[in-house]
Amino acid sequence: MNSNAIDIVYFMDKRMYDSKWIKVLEEPEDIVFVASREHPFAERGILNLNEVIAQPFILTEKNASYRFILDQFLASRNLEIKPFLEIGNTEFIIKLLRSNLGLSFLPEFTVHRDITSGLLCTLPVKDFYMRTWRQIVYHKDKWLTREMSSFIELAASIKPPA
């Protein structure tokens, strides 16, 4: 973006700022441990982090923004998660979760529909809360086309489920 190779960036990560950017969206997104409604942890109540991360996990790639946040959090506590599968396709991860093939750690909005329908559930973990941020930025010297303005308006109007 800073070299004018792309017009606009929509990303999920920690809050990021640059004096060359105009930020038009910054919305929080909770990241949650999630499992099938059939998983033994589904009805257990508040769980201990150590017992959760010892389960079979299906995660995004190691450097994906929210995976990186989780890895850093765990490292700060001398803990580590060892997934049996790492894949970049969130929808595929959700399909595996629906089949009760492990646990995952995903932005809540990606699994909200499955949670509401009763297929999946979030797992409450004692003393654990994580959040990332949906952000849209463009370069301050960029001329906004009508299409870019429409995209910004549309993206800003979409509110994740409460």
Looking at this protein, list some descriptive labels:
single chain, 162 residues, alpha+beta, D-Maltodextrin-Binding Protein, domain 2, five-stranded antiparallel β-sheet, two-stranded parallel sheet, 5 helices, 7 strands, 29% helix
Work out the radius of gyration: 18 Å
Q: Label the CATH architecture.
A: 3-Layer(aba) Sandwich
Portion in beta strands: 25-35%
- Overall mean pLDDT: 91
Global morphology: elongated
Q: How many independent structural domains?
A: 1
Distance between the termini: 32 Å
Description:
The protein has 162 residues and is an alpha+beta fold. It is 29% helix and 27% strand. Strands 1, 2, 5, 6 and 7 form a five-stranded antiparallel β-sheet that branches. A two-stranded parallel ribbon has the order 3-4.
Sum this structure up briefly.
This protein is of the alpha+beta class. The chain has helices at residues 49-53, 65-76, 90-98, 108-116, 146-157; strands at residues 8-13, 21-36, 58-59, 85-86, 104-107, 120-122, 130-139.
SSE layout and pairings?
Elements: E1 8-13, E2 21-36, H1 49-53, E3 58-59, H2 65-76, E4 85-86, H3 90-98, E5 104-107, H4 108-116, E6 120-122, E7 130-139, H5 146-157
Parallel strand pairs: 3-4
Antiparallel strand pairs: 1-7, 2-5, 2-6, 2-7
